[in-house]
Amino acid sequence: MMKSAVLIAGPTASGKSALALEIASRRNGIVINADSMQVYRDLRIITARPTDDEMSFAPHRLYGHIGVEEIYSAGRWLREAEQEITSARAAGKTAIVIGGTGLYFSALLKGLSAVPEVSAEIRSQVRDLGDIKDSEALHSMLAARDPRTASEIRVPDRQRILRALEVIEATGRGLAEWREEPGVPVLNSGDYRAIFLETDREALGKRIDTRFDKMLAEGAIEEVKALNTRNLDPKMPALKAHGVPWLIKYLNNEMTLEEAAAQGKRDTRQYSKRQETWFRNQLPEFTWVKPDAAAESLLGGA
User: Is the pLDDT of residue 3 over 90?
Assistant: First the structure.
């Protein structure tokens, strides 16, 4: 019998959406998004969110349901995903959780530690600090206040450094210490099947480049232009979606479209490598499968 949940992860542009639709059509499934950028309603094209036609083949949840002016946390995603999985089970359907955001899947399988919410005031103070200090200086600040967490974060990883600074400032306890408190998993080992799409790196790079060109042709520039006119805080997560910062630079006449596209493709390729490394190191629960064998792997074990 098919598990009540199927988890499909993989690097960007690896074919996850097509696989999810196939499983959904054959197993009466509901597709639940686990991509931290596809939650934003104003980023349909630049995040390669499923089209209306694709979404008409099966129910889709947690796609494009919040505004770009909001900060969307892993904790909020987990609460919403748990509700959708519970609803799918109650309706006798298979929950198909799909995406590339490793923290979301980790939260689903391991729970989240009870780190308190950081106030908007403290978050703003720390982010303002991030505007005037480089990563090395920020890392040194973290090491002085929370050496344990600092030892677990690479110097170039600004977002994780800033998050750790927010937590130590807000709570007086380091993020590493908070994470020692066990979370409660939403799914237990017998509840799900989990695969990670293992792709050929060179072929994936070509797919990423082709997809980025396709997004440009389909209106990504206009989408980012509409975003740019809203004068949003540049530190908002939605404005860091792959390609967005570079297309904003193009729209502001700071670089050519060719340069912006090249940088967007480069960032996406580098992110795909980080996704693979993260899942390999952090989520051994996932079975690595070649894309052409993925459907058989999931359906054959039904």
Answer: no
Q: How far is CA 24 from CA 31, 188, 191, 293, in A?
A: 7, 21, 17, 16
Residue 183's closest CA among 93, 103, 259, 285? Answer: 103
User: DSSP string of 244-282?
Assistant: HHHHHHHHTTSS-HHHHHHHHHHHHHHHHHHHHHHHHHH
Q: Distance (Å, rounded) from C-alpha 154 to C-alpha 277?
A: 14
Q: Work out the number of other CB atoms within 10 angstroms of the CB of residue 234.
A: 11
Q: Provide the pLDDT for residue 302.
A: 47
Whether 197 contacts 11, CB under 8 Å = yes
Whole-angstrom distance, CA of residue 300 vs CA of residue 60:
24
Please count the other Cβ atoms lying within 10 Å of the Cβ belonging to residue 204: 23
Residues 163 and 36 grouped into a single domain: no
CB 94 within 8 A of CB 6: yes
Dihedral sign (CA 289, 295, 300, 302): positive
d(CA 214, CA 221): 11
* Spatial contact of 122 and 170, defined as CB atoms under 8 Å apart: yes
Continuous segment of H or E residues that includes residue 24: helix 16-26
The 8-class DSSP code of residue 97 comes to: E
Domain count, the chain: 3
Question: 52-72: per-residue pLDDT in tens?
Answer: 999 999 999 999 999 999 888
Taking the model in full, what pTM does it have?
Answer: 0.84
Band (pLDDT 50/70/90 cuts) for residue 2 is: low
Say if residue 154 is in the same domain as residue 289. no
Nearest of 83, 81, 105 to residue 7 by alpha carbon: 105
Residues 42, 89: one domain? Answer: yes
Range 188-192 average pLDDT: 89
Distance between start and end Cα atoms, the chain: 5
| Claim to verify: residue 83 and residue 191 sit in the same structural domain | yes
